[in-house]
User: Which sequence fits this backbone?
């Protein structure tokens, strides 16, 4: 039975937090916890969600939740899972919510170790494409051309020059039992992937695009819209890796305009037509590979 | 009880087996490796029922142990020098989180230069991290510490992680006859781990949160008190230990022939064995000398040290570390202890054993000779090669 | 159960726990003061599709009588709900 707004658990587990208005990350965490329910034991590293959710005595998680060190989300999860299991406790879901930095940069080592051991944990990366909590600095998941506070856009350099690290495929390359990409702009897809993952034994990785109005420089009400558009214009895709195979869950009939998607956001407004062309080409190149090699649903 | 011929590492591993940790997460580093190898064998042959997690770094080892402790299970990890420093962030995290994790540290020199041999710069450079720090002299004490560490750490009044230090190679890899207690005795001594400081499906909690300027000091104060409380609990642990195992330890320090000593060497770890022998030799020659062995650097035995040294003429602190730009850290701590009690004796500092350099009986005799002739200051032993 | 507002703010030494470990879902402040404008739902127009409830990052929209209500104690006024409502049942009104 597919999950939707009506069938979703009515309870709230992430509430009263101090995230910016319109925060995509908090939306992702809120929904994930509603899918997983009160048996979720959540680990959050240093980052936006822990910074806004755990300010004693304002403690915004009504399920079990703990902050890990920045680099240690996956390893703390491994310890939690083993520790509960050692006590004969089985009805729980060990879940991590780490940002792009806590996943692809400082957290990568521990994540790789966990996947390698096939620890029975669900690892969710809420990707707002920069170190937002500390003031919008570049991470390895910051897309090409984005202006951040450490990749300022000026006459000489047009913002971040490196492409987005492909964390989904890095997780898949471990031959992980289950990995998926998602977006808060395609909520039913995201919810159902979480539910599916929660039923799989072993390590699961879900990478959800979670726009940050503050860092992307869009209006607070545009979060969901822009999270949909990044998929519709082909710069992000909804896919799964399972049983050694990649599957594309959604193929837009015709991509919406990349330039329009980019120019809506203050962090991309400086891009030249040439920059946008580069971005379009790399998108096309990626989709060529997807169309050739992935199973298309 | 069985008598076995074991290395320091093996003895510690036996002690851990008896302590029954539920999750072991460790990363190999010389000279700790034997401990984790033995534990993995015990897991394999089922003499130890534990989850053994092959973590991919020391930072993850302690991070994993914190996850284990945070759900109310007993955690163990072990490391040395570079690994200890790599997980340094997690040390304050664990102590601040009040997770009673036990970690064995094989004392080893820290780079640079690279050196795999034993000195105490690794643990002593992290004295402020909020962990209980004990220093074993021999393999028997190592085994016994493995059991006592959980008893002390998990006591509600303490709730502080415990670092048990064994001198690299000199203690970890040398062999002694060791009494290995039975499971029954160990279970009688060490109760199962119970705590309310845990994530609980029946009573959900939020752990390891932020505390701002208004509340932070209170948390830190409570942490400090917890560590201070360890002194009392160590005493209780040793009483109970003596009743069950027949071995009585002497608390935070051990005094050897200090009562009427004019000249005392204060030291810690395995070198104390050689100092003890030197004391006996010099006593035979009519010299009134003694040894004060520090067993716990944290909580620091201020009263015990002041009490042992107050009637001496002079004391030398012999340690295997240096706080660059000043003096040995143990020396700093000892001087503070005697100053607080207004004891006016001459003290001097001997830095030896760095990078595993051997300290000879002759050098120890010279130290006693030095302090008798009034020498003070910081002296490095072992300069100039062989 | 949702995190909720409590009366007591632990402040004294005896009220502060021995470890950074406390009851889950313990709230002491509201977020209402953040808003410049607040969403108002026209219940006559609302068809109970629940998209606003689904997409609120703060979870302040709740199911009520086949439609929805808003917990204004914790609404930040981001406006996602207004934008997502397909039939324009939500308007943003300026806070006084």
Assistant:
């Amino acid at each position: 039975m597919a999950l939707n707004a009506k069938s979703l658990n009515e309870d709230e587990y992430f509430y009263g937090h101090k995230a910016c208005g319109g925060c995509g990350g908090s939306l992702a965490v809120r929904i994930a916890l509603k899918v997983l329910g009160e048996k979720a034991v959540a680990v959050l590293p240093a980052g936006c969600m822990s910074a806004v959710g755990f300010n004693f005595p304002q403690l915004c998680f009504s399920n079990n939740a703990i902050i890990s060190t920045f680099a240690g989300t996956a390893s703390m999860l491994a310890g939690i899972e083993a520790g509960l299991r050692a006590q004969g406790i089985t009805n729980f879901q060990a879940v991590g919510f780490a940002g792009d930095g806590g996943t692809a940069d400082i957290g990568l080592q521990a994540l790789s170790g966990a996947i390698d051991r096939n620890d029975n944990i669900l690892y969710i990366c809420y990707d707002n494409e920069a170190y937002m909590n500390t003031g919008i600095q570049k991470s390895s998941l910051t897309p090409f051309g984005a202006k951040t506070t450490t990749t300022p856009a000026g006459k000489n350099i047009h913002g971040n020059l490196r492409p987005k690290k492909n964390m989904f495929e890095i997780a898949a390359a471990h031959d992980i039992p289950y990995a998926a990409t998602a977006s808060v702009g395609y909520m039913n897809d995201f919810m159902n992937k979480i539910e599916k993952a929660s039923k799989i034994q072993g390590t699961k990785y879900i990478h959800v695009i979670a726009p940050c109005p503050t860092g992307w420089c869009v209006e607070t009400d545009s979060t969901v819209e822009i999270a949909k558009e990044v998929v519709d214009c082909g710069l992000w895709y909804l896919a799964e890796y399972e049983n050694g195979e990649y599957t594309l869950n959604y193929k837009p009939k015709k991509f919406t305009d990349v330039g329009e998607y980019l120019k809506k956001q203050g962090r991309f407004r400086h891009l030249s037509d040439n920059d946008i062309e580069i971005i379009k080409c790399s998108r096309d190149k990626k989709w060529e590979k997807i169309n050739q090699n992935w199973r298309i649903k | 009880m069985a008598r076995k011929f074991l290395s320091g590492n093996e003895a510690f591993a036996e002690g851990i087996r008896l302590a029954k940790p539920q999750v072991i997460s460790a990363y190999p580093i010389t000279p700790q490796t034997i401990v984790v190898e033995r534990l993995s064998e015990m897991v394999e042959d089922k003499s130890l029922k534990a989850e053994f997690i092959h973590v991919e770094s020391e930072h993850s080892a302690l991070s994993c142990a914190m996850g284990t402790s945070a759900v109310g299970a007993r955690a163990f990890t072990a490391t040395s020098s570079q690994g200890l420093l790599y997980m340094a962030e997690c040390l304050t995290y664990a102590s601040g989180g009040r997770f009673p994790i036990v970690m064995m540290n094989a004392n080893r020199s820290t780079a640079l230069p690279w050196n795999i041999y034993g000195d105490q710069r690794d643990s002593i450079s992290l004295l402020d991290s909020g962990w209980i720090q004990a220093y074993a002299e021999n393999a028997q004490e190592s085994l016994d510490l493995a059991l006592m560490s959980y008893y002390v750490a998990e006591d509600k009044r303490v709730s502080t992680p415990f670092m048990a230090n064994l001198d690299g190679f000199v203690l970890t890899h040398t062999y002694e006859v060791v009494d290995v207690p039975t499971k029954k005795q160990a279970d009688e001594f060490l109760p199962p781990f119970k705590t309310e400081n845990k994530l609980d499906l029946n009573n959900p909690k939020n752990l390891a949160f932020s505390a701002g300027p208004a509340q932070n000091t209170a948390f830190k104060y409570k942490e400090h008190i917890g560590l201070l409380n360890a002194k009392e609990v160590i005493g209780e642990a040793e009483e109970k230990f003596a009743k069950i195992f027949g071995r009585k330890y002497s608390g935070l320090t051990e005094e050897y022939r200090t009562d009427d000593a004019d000249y005392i060497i204060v030291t810690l770890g395995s070198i104390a064995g050689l100092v003890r022998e030197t004391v006996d030799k010099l006593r035979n020659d009519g010299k009134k000398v003694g040894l004060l062995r520090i067993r716990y650097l944290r909580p620091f035995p201020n009263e015990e040290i002041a009490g042992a040294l107050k009637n001496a003429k002079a004391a030398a602190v012999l340690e295997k570390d240096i706080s660059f730009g000043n003096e040995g850290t143990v020396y700093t701590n000892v001087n503070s202890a005697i100053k607080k009690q207004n004891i006016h004796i001459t003290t001097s500092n001997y830095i030896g054993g760095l990078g595993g350099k051997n300290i000879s009986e002759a050098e120890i005799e010279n130290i006693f000779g030095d302090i008798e002739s009034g020498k003070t200051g910081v002296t490095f032993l072992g300069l100039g090669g062989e | 159960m949702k995190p909720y507002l409590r009366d007591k703010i632990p402040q004294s030494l005896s009220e502060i726990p021995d470890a950074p470990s406390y009851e889950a879902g313990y709230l002491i402040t509201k977020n209402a003061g953040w808003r410049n404008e607040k969403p108002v739902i026209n219940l006559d127009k609302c068809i109970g599709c629940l998209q606003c409830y689904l997409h609120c990052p703060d979870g302040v929209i709740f199911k009520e009588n086949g439609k929805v209500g808003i917990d204004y104690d914790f609404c930040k006024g981001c406006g996602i709900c207004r934008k997502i409502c397909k039939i324009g049942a939500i308007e943003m009104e300026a806070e006084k």
